[in-house]
Design goal:
The complex is a heterodimer of chains A (295) and B (281).
Chain A (H helix, E strand, L loop, with lengths): L2 H41 L4 H6 L3 E2 L6 E2 L2 H32 L2 H16 L2 H20 L7 H25 L3 H9 L4 H12 L1 H17 L2 H6 L17 H8 L8 H35 L1
Antiparallel strand pairs in A: 1-2
Chain B lengths: L1 H35 L5 H5 L2 E2 L4 E2 L2 H32 L4 H15 L2 H15 L6 H25 L3 H9 L4 H30 L27 H10 L4 H36 L1
Antiparallel strand pairs in B: 1-2
Classes of the chains: A mainly alpha (295), B mainly alpha (281).
């Protein structure tokens, strides 16, 4: 091949590679556009005030009430519950793995976390039905164990690998000199862990929690299977709930194309998109702050 | 005395948390395998369902998942590697690469059900592909893209610059350097990332819900514009929507076993490649 031909190939391929890079921006832009275009179509039918402040999601009724509030409350409740379980467990486990576990145990624990992360969400939801649900029903003496508590436990299991992995990186990145200084002042290893290492790793730990929360908020199948799917305002963890994701999953398959109901599902998806975007950006902000701090 | 007690309690706190996390995995695997193992047989994976899903096997769901994963691979792998090559080999750090990287991170954080909506709006309705294995595969491909880009870029970063410089000094063009030196050298790392991403995609349910998955199809999926059955969706339907749920529970457990074995099998291959590469270096 002549040099000129080789150089032409080189130039053309450079353009192709660049195009794939630009396409990722286009993809994000297209998802954004799709959500907001359809949401605007929705808000020409239903006022945003009713959408955000109403108390009922009942598109099947005669007038069709579309309020995101019960769905948002459900999503928040189950995600909050999952973080209540997963954050302490995840951070303490990460601390144990990175600071105390012997080398050989570390080698065993890492694949355990990776296997936990690899289990498909539908399999975890299945266990919510056959295992956690009956256990909750028995424990609290209620008829049906498919509720927010069940969903919280399952989402905690799903968020744990994310939280542990990132928290472990954060704790590992705390400079050895900090710990040595603490030991030199006479602090024992626990005081060093809780008063020096963990506070120093805090931005990284916050990032871990944010990314775990993002995962829990966006999860569909587990909450769809394990939380009972009643679209009413939840009063507590033993109530059946229906998250934004589950609502989309249940109703999108049956709704006629380009009706108010169809657009409504895009509108609640847009709200979910904005929430997860903000949570992920916050996580990234804290992760960057942590990196700069220790660089 | 008090010191000893706090010492002990702290220890219990840390080790206890770690044990609970391990216990979660143990319970999940024990329950599914102990109850599902007896349902799995050669007939279970080689026969179609019979008598309204109460008997027979899961062959169409298995084939559907294979189709889906194949389409996802064909779409997302060239695209993902292309983008990673651009970011790591061609582009100098600039506002543009920062925007591309931020887009990739944000794409990775978007809930999978929103990819499902996007697939519905773009492929099923916009491009008129209908609910089909092609629409669903492309949707999963989009979902997989950010992971493939990130892992490929990690693999490319590990190739020392001296190798690129040596090839360029011999008169190779940049593309020839990438094609003949960088990519072959980074292949194990790239493969590991691809396999792990595919194992995630194979277990996804939400993105395929409205893009083409079906509870039952007659025969096997044989063309791109057909609807299809898939393992994770099959498990979902058997455990929540079937009219005689208790009767099909053993089949649901069996499906869960097959799904988890498939996903773990892919993970194991990825670990093996990673392990071999580390021992070689």
């Amino acid at each position: 091949m002549s040099v000129r031909r080789r150089e032409r190939t080189d130039r053309i391929l450079k353009i192709i590679f660049k195009a794939t890079g630009l396409a990722t921006i286009a993809l994000l832009g297209a998802i954004f556009f799709m959500l907001f275009y359809n949401s605007i179509a929705f808000f020409t039918h239903i006022s945003p005030i009713d959408f955000f402040t109403g108390s009922q999601w009942n598109p099947e009724s005669v007038n069709g009430t579309y309020s995101i509030f019960p769905l948002l409350a459900s999503t928040g409740l189950v995600a909050f519950g999952s973080m209540f379980i997963a954050v302490p467990l995840g951070i303490l486990t990460a601390a144990y793995i990175s600071e105390f576990a012997p080398r050989k145990l570390q080698i065993v624990l890492k694949p355990v976390i990776e296997m936990l992360a690899a289990i498909p969400s539908v399999a975890i939801g299945f266990l919510g039905i056959v295992l956690i649900g009956p256990a909750i029903a028995k424990l609290f003496g209620i008829q049906n164990g498919l509720n927010a508590l069940n969903g919280s436990i399952l989402l905690a299991v799903m968020a744990l690998p994310t939280i542990i992995t990132i928290a472990e990186d954060a704790i590992n990145a705390v400079p050895q000199t900090y710990k040595e200084a603490s030991f030199a002042l006479g602090a024992n290893k626990w005081a060093t862990l809780f008063k020096v290492t963990i506070p120093a790793a805090l931005p990284g730990l916050i990032a871990a929690v944010m990314l775990g929360l993002g995962r829990a908020l966006g999860e569909t199948m587990t909450v769809l299977m394990a939380t009972g799917n009643a679209a009413a305002l939840p009063k507590g963890f033993l109530d059946s709930i229906r998250t934004i994701t589950a609502t989309i999953a249940i109703e999108m398959g049956e709704v006629p194309y380009q009706t108010t109901h169809y657009f409504a599902l895009f509108a609640i998806a847009a709200v979910l998109f904005v929430i997860t975007l903000v949570i992920n950006l916050l996580g990234e902000y804290f992760a960057n702050r942590f990196r700069k701090f220790h660089a | 005395m008090k010191k000893k007690l706090t010492h002990f309690l702290n220890w219990v706190l840390l080790v206890g948390s770690t044990c609970i996390v391990c216990l979660f995995l143990g319970i999940i695997l024990f329950d599914i395998f102990s109850k599902g193992f007896s349902s799995v047989s050669w007939n279970f994976i080689s026969q179609p369902p019979e008598q309204g899903m109460t008997k027979g096997g899961i062959l169409p769901a298995l084939i559907g998942t294979l189709w889906l994963t194949l389409i996802t691979t064909l779409f997302a792998v060239p695209f993902g590697i292309g983008c990673a090559v651009y970011l790591n080999e061609y582009a100098k750090p600039s506002l543009l690469t920062n925007i591309i990287r931020a887009s990739i991170r944000n794409l990775a954080g978007i809930p999978s059900i929103i990819y499902g909506l996007f697939g519905l709006a773009l492929f099923v309705q916009g491009l008129r592909m209908g609910t089909s294995v092609l629409s669903a595969g492309l949707t999963l491909g989009l979902l997989s893209l950010p992971y493939i880009i990130t892992t490929t870029e990690e693999a490319l970063k590990r190739i020392p610059n001296s190798m690129r410089e040596a090839t360029l000094a011999l008169g190779a063009t940049q593309f020839e350097t990438i094609k003949d030196v960088v990519l072959p050298k980074a292949l194990p790392g790239i493969l590991t990332g691809i396999i792990l991403t595919l194992s995630r995609a194979a277990g996804e349910t939400a993105p395929i819900l409205f893009t083409g998955v079906a509870f039952y199809i007659n025969g096997l999926t044989s063309s791109l514009n057909q609807e299809f059955m898939a393992l994770p969706y099959h498990l979902y339907m058997l455990s929540t929507q079937h009219q005689s749920i208790q009767q099909v529970r053993p089949l649901a457990y069996g499906t869960a076993v097959v799904l988890i074995v498939l996903v773990f099998g892919l993970n194991l291959i990825a670990f093996y490649i990673r392990f071999k590469q580390r021992t070689q270096d």
